[in-house]
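ok trying again, last paste got cut off:
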Amino acid sequence: MVGRRTILMVEDETSITEPLAEALDREGFDTRVAGTVADALSEAEREMPDLVLLDVMLPDGSGYDVARTLRERSKVPIIMLTARGEETDRIVGLELGADDYIVKPFSAREVAARIRAVLRRVGDVPAAPTAAPETLEIGPVKLDPARREATAHGTDLDLTRKEFELLELLMREAGTVISRERLIDEVWDTNWFGSTKTLDVHVSSLRRKLGDDSQNPRFIHTVRGVGFRFASAEEL
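nice, full thing came through this time. structure:
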């Protein structure tokens, strides 16, 4: 990693921001703080950070609105920070494109570890690859890992980062059943602490964007009690 990664912390509680910012600075990050939705979007537009720590409850609105707007503008990694622990709240954040979710109370060491894990997942790309990753094409679905683009029937698919990574893994092993555990481990990493229902939410979203029939899917098939598989070229 070259230079200090910039972290934008969107949180209005100074009892959290001050000690956490100091701790993250000691961990080698350059931490900026915004206490409102307006300040967060303004700060991000002025200089997009390497990662956003985003609280859900803000004085002038919801962190979900910030996440939604950021996702429209960029693929900046987002970690949600919130006192809410309900599964539905986690799923909402993940559906909006969040990369991780930490429930308060948390330690600064945990936050730093989560930041590093997310940055590794989204930034571990060789500076000078010897060969570009191969383009995957199965039936009418085409995925270009190098360009981070995917199409179905010639139409661009608007995928979140996790949806893209999930689709790529399924397509790379088309025709083979991939267990739920492995999909969680490889797409969300082994430190993921959320419900595996998150996987179902992402599969459902992928099916919808692919134009798949949820009752009789053509592309992504459910293997009950095991996991999922992408149809082979012969099936399509």
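cool. Residues 136-230 form a domain with the Arc Repressor Mutant, subunit A fold (CATH 1.10.10.10). The chain has two domains: 6-123, 136-230.
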